[in-house]
Amino acid sequence: MLKLFTPNYYIHRYTALRPAFLKEQGIQLLICDIDNTLVPHDVAVPDDEAIAFLKSIQDAGIQIVFISNNVEERVATFAKGLNIPFYPFAMKPLPKTYRKMLKDFHVKRDVVAVLGDQLMTDILGANVMRFYTILTAQVVERDLSFTKVNRVFENIVFSLLKVTGKLVKGEYDE
Ligand SMILES: [Mg+2]
């Protein structure tokens, strides 16, 4: 059970995720969360650093898609001009949207990675799908109200992961 909450790779910030590393894992599709993974939830557009990161992944020949439980307006505004497909209202951790992506991009699950900041949504849903899972520490401490609830459960899971020696919060793999 705890295995479903354990990421394959744990980083302090998205910038620590190197395109060459993804290539080594055989990744062809990177599903990327937005809120508190790339920017705080109340920042509407990507900054230069996020844009450079996304471009570096694309330049390596890896397709990026955005996934978000947030509303379409927020996700569309963020993705504008980036030429990156996006899936709002994703209802993570339900596998529905992840499944749709496999169909839309005609890829097998073993070439897909997910980058996100939440164990309870991003990582759980992606592990159920048996994707390669990458957890990043959140960009800022502040969260959307429904995310605050998730964080309470997330901290319990972090405690269990620590006790069982699977993962220690703040001890990164990079
Ligand atoms: Mg997030």
Question: Outline of this structure?
Answer:
With 174 residues, the protein is of the alpha/beta class. 37% of the residues lie in helices and 14% in strands. Strands 1-6-5-2-3-4 form a 6-stranded parallel sheet, with helices on both faces.
Structure overview:
- There is one protein chain.
- The chain has about 170 residues and is of the alpha/beta class.
- It has a single domain (about 1-165), classed as 3-Layer(aba) Sandwich (Rossmann fold), CATH 3.40.50.1000.
- It has 6 helices and 6 strands.
- The longest helix is centred in the last third of the chain and has 19 residues, at about 145-165.
- It is globular, with a radius of gyration of 15 Å.
- The two termini are about 25 Å apart.
- The mean pLDDT is about 95.
- It binds magnesium ion.
- Magnesium ion (MG) binds near residues 35, 37, 116, 117 and 118.
Distinctive features:
single chain, alpha/beta, Rossmann fold, binds magnesium ion, HAD-like_sf, phosphatidylglycerophosphatase activity
The stretches of 5 or more residues where confidence is low (pLDDT under 50) are: none
CATH superfamily: HAD superfamily/HAD-like
Compute the gyration radius: what is it? 15 Å
Fold-level CATH name: Rossmann fold
Mean pLDDT: 96
> What is the CATH class name?
Alpha Beta
Task: Kindly report the spatial arrangement of strands forming the biggest sheet.
Answer: 1-6-5-2-3-4
The SS-based structural class is alpha/beta
Proportion of residues in β-strands: 5-15%
Q: Order of helices and strands, N to C? A: EHEHEHEHEHEH
User: What is the percent of helical residues?
Assistant: 25-40%
Number of helices: 6
Major beta-sheet overview: 6 strands, parallel
How far apart, in Å, are the first and last alpha carbons? 25 Å
Tell me how many strands there are: 6
| Bound small-molecule species | magnesium ion
CATH architecture: 3-Layer(aba) Sandwich
Label the overall shape: globular
